[in-house]
Amino acid sequence: MKRLCTICARGGSKGVPGKNVRMLLGKPLIAHTVEQARESGLFDHIAVSSDSDAILNAARDAGADILVRRPDEMALDTSAKLPAIQHCAKSAEAETGIAYDIFCDLDATSPLRDIADIRGAVEMMEAGGCDNVITGAPAHRSPYFNLVERGSDGFVGVCKKLDRELVRRQDAPACFDCNASIYVWTRHSLFEEPSVLGDRTALFEMPESRSRDIDSELDFEIVEFLMRRKERS
Predict the structure, then answer these.
(1) 62 within some domain
(2) Which domain holds residue 111?
(3) Per the structure, how many domains does the chain have?
(4) How does pLDDT run across 137-172, given as a tens digit for each residue?
(5) Which residue pairs, CB below 8 angstroms and at least 24 apart, start in 225-232?
(6) Do β-strands 102-106 and 176-186 pair in parallel, antiparallel, or remain unpaired?
(7) Which pTM does this prediction carry?
């Protein structure tokens, strides 16, 4: 079983400029994810894709095996992530000559994950029964109870209705916030039937404390606080 880890990090962040190479606990943000991938012991190679020399250099220094220059059209604010992952995977295969069986993408802006989360998501994929695996944490709001949408008449109502009345959020079906931390595909599901959310997508559950994604200055401060607390424990 050959496994590839991809880490896709573009240089043009608007919410936190330069965030992927911003120092977090003494090392660039992206270095935390590269080191987690290596410490997991799961992957034959770790490939980092970016349009930024600074990010690629930081990834190389952290121990990435393969550096992939991302095309400009895949590094725009409006660019989808899945094509960038596919491009990174194909570039890695061209460089190594290996047809990988399992592909795991780790988001560089989610450094709170544990090694156990990576291993658990990959194990879920390899156990079979699904096309791909994503990660998420229990949601604070429920579309069945206290998450509303506005109709064409201007009035609001819950997004999803059941055939029974709900008086507590806890009585609603379990819902999860996608935390964009870990994605796993088989070779077929990544290249032949690619999707982030499909009919056969499984979810590996992570706690809220490891599910913060850095998309703003406040996120960065919260992640830094939680990582410092984790170091002291």
Answers:
(1) yes
(2) 3-139+175-232
(3) 1
(4) 999 888 888 889 998 999 898 888 888 877 777 878
(5) 226/112, 227/24, 227/25, 227/111, 227/112, 228/25, 230/112, 231/25
(6) antiparallel
(7) 0.91
